[in-house]
Amino acid sequence: MSRPKNDTFLRALLKEPTEYTPLWLMRQAGRYLPEYCETRKRAGNFLNLCKTPSLACEVTLQPLARYDLDAAILFSDILTVPDAMGLGLYFEEGEGPRFERPLREEWEINDLTAPDPYDHLRYVMDGVSETHRALANSVPLIGFAGSPYTLACYMVEGQGSSDFRNIKGMLYNRPDLLHRILSVTADSVTSYLNAQIDSGAQAVMIFDTWGGSLSAAAYPEFSLYYMERIVAGLKKEKDGQRVPSIVFTKNGGLWLERIAAIGCDAVGLDWTIDIGEARRRVGDKVCLQGNLDPNVLFAAPEVISTEAKKVLDAFGHANTGHVFNLGHGISQYTPPESVTALVESVHSHSRSLRA
Fold first, then answer.
1. DSSP character for 211?
2. Is 77 a catalytic residue?
3. 40 flagged as catalytic
4. CA dihedral 302, 308, 313, 315 (to 10 degrees)
5. pLDDT tens digits, residue range 161-198?
6. Is 101 part of the annotated catalytic residue set?
7. Could you tell me which residue ranges the Uroporphyrinogen decarboxylase (URO-D) domain spans (predicted)?
């Protein structure tokens, strides 16, 4: 596996010099693109889209055909892992993901086992392989998974939640049961990401969407510990090339130094923290990824440009160690032309900072 022709993203993650700040967007292949909506219609539903490698490949490539992005991220869903554990994932139209069999009983939790990624999640590996081939090493392909705690939130609640009362009830009443879920899930995510690396992913990211809902005392024990375990178990190299890892805890700015210390190459930031302050706190220990408020993309092009420049200026004049991204996923209501304005602003302004 040789480095892609445009390897700016990988170099930034590894804190090597770059000519400009690379850019990709969380959820960049999504409903804001009319071509994505067309492909999804052809698929019939979201799960069919995820589970059909040729269609997953097609939508992964769509934003790269439209925008000058520096990385592709595999089109999939974080809930493929618990689905492969037999929890029965389905999507209610307009209501998000649900599980038919959420984990509530002790015997169900004790019976939980890690799925074989090449068996139960073969469609994901086929999607990675097909997308890697289609990219023809033009830009890197990012593989990803949900963090154990974030996956456990869905596995125990059975769906998205505003108060997490079931999982937090388990956390305080029966921490042993939650640790059992988290341990099996950490093993699952480790093997899942390593299989993605073997199939062609050139960087991997762990999405800890709900870790920021934990208390200061609970976060290290129930979220960070398991992400550290995954990072330690990841393949660091494939065919002589380093495979960097990114960890992103939404609302995790309080624990930035601790996240940066777990061995990952980059830490994702949401929009609630100043990226300059984040850089001062972690120094050169890790690359930082982020962190424009996604709602900036509803503003006029000149405002988008100004806000993007604020992020770049706050990070400073270093010629590496920053991957520009949104502070969370792009909204489905974003005008596609707003992304054009963002990409052009980030690339041109970051070049001028290095001049």
1. G
2. yes
3. yes
4. 180
5. 889 999 999 999 999 999 999 999 999 999 999 999 99
6. no
7. 22-31, 142-158
Give the C-alpha separation, 122 to 120, whole Å: 6
Domain limits, the chain: 8-354
The per-residue pLDDT for range 250-288, each reduced to its tens digit, is 999 999 999 999 999 999 999 999 999 999 999 999 999
Spot the catalytic one: 7, 11, 40, 279.
40
Give catalytic status of residue 122 as yes or no.
no
Tell me whether residue 28 is annotated as binding: yes
| Number of C-beta neighbours around residue 65 at 10 A | 9
Choosing from 154, 192, 219, 226, the catalytic residue is 154
Report domain 8-354's class: alpha beta
pLDDT in tens, 286-310: 999 999 999 999 999 999 999 999 9
Find out whether 159 is annotated in a ligand binding site: no
154 is annotated as contributing to ligand binding: yes
* 27 labeled part of a ligand binding site: yes
Burial (CB count <10 Å: 0-12, 13-18, 19+), residue 302: exposed
Q: Is 172 a catalytic residue?
A: no
Report pTM. 0.97
Length of the chain: 355
149 and 214 Cβ atoms separated by less than 8 Å: yes
Would you place residue 94 in the very low, low, confident or very high pLDDT band (cuts 50, 70, 90)? Answer: confident
State the residue for tokens 């440009």: 305
For residue 46, report the phi and psi dihedrals to the nearest 5 degrees: -60, -45
Q: Give the number of other Cβ atoms within 10 Å of residue 279's Cβ.
A: 20
